[in-house]
Amino acid sequence: METVKKHYLHHKLAKTVFWVALLFSAITSVLFFITELNRSNEKTLVMLNQLLDTVESTAAIAAYSNNSTIGEDVLKGLLRNDIVHEARLSSTQGLQLAKAKDTEVPWQAGVVRTLHSPFGEAEVIGSLAITPEAQYNLLEARHSALLSGLNSSVLIGLTALIVLLIVRSSLSLPLMKVSNTLHAIRVGEQERLGPLPRNHDDELGQLVEDINRLLETLQEKFSAEHGLREEIEVIERQLRNIFETTSAGIFLLDATGRLLTVNPALGKVIALPHLSPKELLGQNFPELVFAEPELMRELMAIAASRNLSVVQDLRLKKRGDVSNNWVHCILSRQTDALHGVCFEGVVYDITDRIVAEASIRHEADHDSLTALFNRPAAERLLAQLIGTRTGAETPLALFMLDLDFFKEINDTYGHDAGDYVLVEVAARLKNCVRASDIAARLGGDEFLIILVDGVSADYARQIAKDICIAVSMPIRISPTVVVRLGASIGIAINGGQEQAIEQLYKVADQAMYEVKRQGRHGFAMSLADGNIVVEKIPING
Amino acid sequence: MAMPVAQADVAVIAHIKSNFSSLTAKQVQDIFMGRTRIFPNGKFALPIDQSSPLRAEFYEELTGRPVEQINAYWARIMFTGQASPPQRLPDDEAVLQTVRENEGAIGYIDKTRVDGTIRVLLLVQPWKP
After folding, report:
1. pLDDT value for B3
2. What is the mean pLDDT of residues B39-65?
3. Are residues A270 and A395 in the same domain?
4. Which chain A positions have a beta carbon within 8 Å of B129's beta carbon?
5. Using an 8 Å Cβ cutoff, are A345 and A253 in contact?
6. Residue A179 within any structural domain of the chain
7. What pLDDT digit, counting tens, does each position of A511-525 carry?
8. Residue A70 is part of which domain span?
């Protein structure tokens, strides 16, 4: 506990009482001095008059008889009094006597007594004047004032002392006890103030009770808060742990897309593992990370306008050999007191999922044996092609292809051989068409080829011919066995105008059957007039 | 009042040749009480007292004071040595004799003793406050 120099209350009180008492004493002394001076002046006047009364008759005789000896006796007698400074006797017959003490006094009013004849009262025969000793008044007044001052000082001092002792014993000491105990108690401790036996029914007792109650409440609050804080700390630690160790990247962006906060995993997720979280701060997140930053910015705009969490799969910028290049991003707008509008977001790597999705889609769309499109994919693609056509494009051609002699090969050499043949044929078909064209296996030995663009009848025939030739090339199914196949192709050309898919299929089918009917291995095309022209391709030895 | 005395008037007398005919009671008083030593005409005045019972009457009627006070007055003055009370003669006859013989003398006698040899300056009336 820190020990500070204490200024005790009763000392302060004593000081205050002392000074106030001194002040009062001084004031009363001054007042007393003034009144005493006045009183003394009055008293002096009365005494002077009494003195005059005493000597009046003798003075009158002196004035009457012009007797200076008697006059001087009178004056001497007067001067023997302390209060008399100067005395003057004058008579109408020319007697002028004056006596004074050699003290210095300021001029002041004296008393003048008119002298009457001792034998005829009415006759004025002279005057007797006395000037009082000013010093005397002053001394007397000062003496009185001093006495009164001393008197009141002693009284006031005694009273102050008694008050001080009472205050000290009944207020200051118990209060000091309470104060010292309270000073030693630390917040949240069990300790309480001891009761004051002599003050249990007064304000001090109540104060002690109230303080104890307050300490009780404080302790409860303190422990409750302590528990709560620990709980919060645990939660905070857990959250921080999650933030630090999660594999997802967590970040906070300001309104312009700059990174304000990032967790350690972010760098790895966004394929920048060499950048520390510190280095990432302040960077423009969309520009830095994404292959299409505008998508991210759009996402931010949506999140800002809707005030909702928005999600999007986003492709990362291509960077060397880093394998992850897709992330799933969840973004929501927050309003931060520190940064204003900002965005918090989570990204996690979904490259594997994207890859898996791609492979699933591939499997769904392709024939597992030949890797050509399967029928549903082909039909979907065709429907897309037809659906998006405006009529201004060059025509597309649809080939229906059926292998000749496949059943025989399958029956003779087995399914493996058949499968091998189908794979080989598929490869040759692909070689004969452009990459943008569509080659599909419809099932069994049936194929569909769509030449998507810039197709004239002659071009279609040329391609069909190429295919026939390619397919008819020998296929070595085992070291000793070489087989040959043929192809029957029916061609339907979409002549630029709207034409139903079914119609195209039907036309191509009819053409193909016409080829088969006329001995296989060739191709056929329906002409505008409905005739079908078959061109047969001889199978070379 | 003091014991009754013969209520005879007192006459203040002076030498027959005095060139003034009368004095006021105050002028008489001042002369007898030693306040002045000269007459209004500037001549020297010699007051003559007497020790007869008339003295008390004279002073009481002249000053309104008991004769004891007059004695005290003179005692005080005498003590200073500066002045003395008027010369005192035994009776009216001696006063008359002296006044007849001295031109500046002034005295008092019973009014009934007044004759032509002297001049009466004042008849003293009982003193009235």
Report:
1. 43
2. 88
3. no
4. 121
5. yes
6. no
7. 889 888 888 888 888
8. 9-140
Residue type, A72: E
Chain B CB contacts of A121 under 8 Å are 129
Q: Which residue of B has its CA nearest to A69?
A: B80
How large is the ipTM? 0.82
Domain ranges of chain B: 10-124
Residues A421, A529 within the same domain: yes
CB B46 within 8 A of CB B104: yes
- Same domain flag for A387 and A520: yes
Enumerate residues 6+ apart whose C-beta is below 8 A from A453. Answer: A393, A394, A396, A436
Residues of B in contact with A65 (CB under 8 A): 33-35, 77, 83
Q: Examine the domain organization and report whether A433 and A527 are in the same domain.
A: yes
Dist CA A6 CA B126 (whole Å): 97
Separation between Cα atoms, residue A243 and residue A265, nearest integer Å: 9
A120 contacts in B (CB within 8 Å)?
26, 29, 63-64
**Residue contact A58–B76, C-beta within 8 A:** yes
For chain A, which residues lie within 8 Å of any Cβ of chain B, measuring from their own Cβ?
Answer: 58, 61, 64-70, 93, 118-121, 123
Beta pairing, strands A396-404 & A446-451:
antiparallel
Identify the three-state secondary structure at position A281: coil
Q: How would residue A394 be classed by pLDDT, with cut points 50, 70 and 90? A: low
Q: Report the interhelical angle of B25-32 vs B54-63 (nearest 10°).
A: 120
- A135 and A43 belong to one structural domain: yes
Nearest 5°: the CA angle A495, A500, A501 is 95
- Asked if residue A498 and residue A397 are part of one domain, the reply reads yes
Q: What share of chain A is helix, strand, coil (3-state, %, to 5)?
A: 50, 20, 25
Tell me: pLDDT of A477 over 60: yes
Nearest beta carbon to residue A69 from set B34, B35, B80: B80
Q: Which CATH number fits domain B10-124: 3.30.70.2860, 3.40.190.10, 3.40.50.300, 3.40.640.10?
A: 3.40.190.10
User: How far is Cα A165 from Cα A163, in angstroms, rounded to an integer?
Assistant: 5
Residue written as token pair 């006094």: A105
First to last CA, chain B: 13
Burial of A177 (0-12, 13-18, 19+ CB in 10 A): middle
**Site from A68, A91, A119, A125 to mutate, B interface, most B CB atoms within 10 angstroms:** A119
Q: How many domains does chain A have?
A: 4
Q: What is the per-residue pLDDT for B6? A: 47
Answer whether residue A417 is part of any domain: yes
Is there a single domain that holds both residue A389 and residue A309? no
Question: Hey, CA dihedral for A387, A390, A391, A396, is it positive or negative?
Answer: negative
Distance CA A259, CA A497 (A): 55
Q: Which amino acid is at A4?
A: V
Q: What is the CATH number of the domain that holds A298?
A: 3.30.450.20
